[in-house]
Write a structure and sequence with these properties.
binds iron/sulfur cluster; Rossmann fold; binds S-adenosyl-L-homocysteine; OB fold (Dihydrolipoamide Acetyltransferase, E2P); 448 residues; binds FE3-S4 cluster; single chain; alpha/beta; 35% helix; 3 domains; 13 helices; 21% strand; pyruvate-formate lyase- activating enzyme
Length: 448
């Protein structure tokens, strides 16, 4: 499979969610047999892949400004007699394929999330023969069957996509249009991939899906069944999953949180708003009450579970009272962390055409108030770890000599002094300090 020509340099820039991170790794794997090796230096790359995100307007616009910069690099390289291929992948590629080719002629090929296995063929077919260089279809099974997974990666944590796509059609969201219908990979393929990851030293795996808890295997088993199966793999000590939807948070998955030791006590469960009127307009398919009931049940199954979520402020028609209801919900749940966004009007989605679009200034003010409250909760949660000894998976070097960085069960970054040989170990760390974004502590091996 190796080529005799010198290695070609591949530069990948990834935007968006963890599924894009996973996909970027697969893109590197599928291009490796063509002689492409990853580089950090964009200027000298032979091929550039922009793996893009379409979720908010800003994310999309970023793609076009980055392409402008890449065009200049490509022109400079051409003067030196070097060829450089520019490929756009990801959700913008899926949503705006044709438009990208028109707006930025320096782009050689556009490839949607379901067509990465076709990259070698697209590259071979060459340059800008429209149609050949534009691949944006929905064949998730073909994608996963044909994409290799390298066995020589490094790192003690890994993402593993188990489900892709979304059938929920929240009225604000582009994902059902960019990632297609819900599709679950066969559990046999997932288990094989997880075993390969464990064999190369991965200790923690995060199962990914746009609606990961809608996962259903070929025999009708849900995410809980899959998690129990993966938890048996020797060496795989920690399992996480993201992102889940309240509608698919079933009793089986909730009990797994109380029973499967490897399943980390952390649940990212986006609720978006605390107003039932808005949840309905968003087509979320759940109410604040049903969401709060889930939180209560999950906490009953696993007392120390930490909750995080996503929120949108300034959805069309959001009144002060709706926003206050969101703040009330946040106060009631007490989050360990959360992401919050200003509503962004996405062309083609139902909410974009709704009346009552909210002023930018109002969105700004609401976002600030919500983020202040969420930060306060996150700081309080982190501070609550001071004085405790927590198991930390040591992942990499820190900024200071002799310092390593790891993760607590709650996904908090933890800094501590430890020898490099401990990378990949799960060690007890006595937490002595906390900030908004991380914890600091000392190895507590003697008390282990
Ligand atoms: N499938 C997941 C995540 C989808 S995208 C879920 O259902 O929760 C991640 C987050 O981006 C969403 O949870 C939502 O909070 C935010 N988001 C999606 N579309 C948006 C839009 N048009 N404007 C602002 N935020 C948006
Ligand atoms: Fe988007 Fe809603 Fe699907 Fe999540 S559940 S991906 S927010 S449409
Ligand atoms: Fe963005 Fe696509 Fe992920 S729109 S959030 S990269 S699914």
């Amino acid at each position: 499979m190796t080529t005799s020509t010198p290695p070609r340099r591949l530069f990948i820039k990834t935007h968006g969610c963890q599924m894009n991170v996973y996909d970027s790794e697969r893109i590197a794997d599928v291009l490796a047999p063509l002689g492409y090796r990853l580089t950090d230096d964009v200027e000298s790359a032979d091929m550039i892949v922009l793996n893009t995100c379409h979720i908010r307007e800003k994310a999309t616009e970023k793609v076009y400004s980055e392409l402008g910069r890449l065009k200049a690099i490509k022109a400079r390289r051409a003067e030196e007699g070097d060829k450089m291929i520019i490929a756009v992948a990801g959700c913008v590629a899926q949503a705006e394929g044709e438009e990208i080719m028109i707006r930025q002629p320096a782009v050689d090929l556009v490839v949607g999330p379901q067509s990465y296995h076709r990259l070698p063929e697209l590259i071979a077919k060459g340059h800008r023969a429209r149609g050949d260089s534009l691949a944006a279809d929905f064949e998730p099974q073909a994608k996963f069957d044909a994409l290799p997974v390298s066995h020589d990666g490094t790192g003690v944590t890994a993402f593993l996509t188990v489900q892709e796509g979304c059938d929920k059609f929240c009225t604000f969201c582009v994902v059902p249009y960019t990632r297609g219908a819900e599709y679950s990979r066969p559990s046999t393929a997932i288990e094989a991939e997880a075993r390969a990851l464990a064999a190369r030293g991965v200790r923690e795996v995060t199962l990914l899906g746009q609606n990961v808890n809608a996962y259903v295997d070929q025999d009708g088993g849900g995410l809980a069944v899959l998690i129990r199966r993966l938890a048996k793999i020797p060496g795989l000590d920690r399992i996480r999953y993201t992102t889940s939807h309240p509608r698919d948070m079933n009793a089986e998955l909730i009990s797994a949180h109380g029973e499967v030791e490897a399943l980390m006590p952390f649940l990212h469960l986006p609720v978006q708003s605390g107003s039932d009127r808005l949840l309905k307009a968003m087509n979320r398919g759940h109410t604040t009450e049903s969401y709060l009931r889930i939180i209560e049940e999950v906490r009953a199954a696993r007392r120390d579970i930490a909750i995080s979520g996503d929120f949108i402020v300034g959805f069309p028609g959001e009144r002060d009272s709706d926003f206050e209801a969101t703040l009330d919900l946040v106060r009631e749940v007490r989050h360990a962390g959360a992401f919050s966004f200003k509503y962004s009007r996405r062309p083609g989605t139902p909410a974009a055409a709704m009346g009552g679009q909210i002023d930018e200034a109002v969105k700004d003010e609401r976002l600030q108030r919500l983020q202040a409250l969420l930060s306060e909760q996150q700081s309080a949660f982190n501070a609550s770890q001071i004085g405790r000894t927590v198991p930390v998976l040591l992942e990499r070097h820190g900024r200071h000599p002799g310092q390593l960085i790891g993760r607590s069960p709650y996904l908090q970054g933890v800094h501590c002094s430890a020898p490099e040989a401990m990378i990949g170990a799960i060690v007890p760390v006595a937490i002595s300090a906390a900030s908004l974004n991380s914890l600091t502590g000392e190895l507590a091996l003697e008390t282990a």
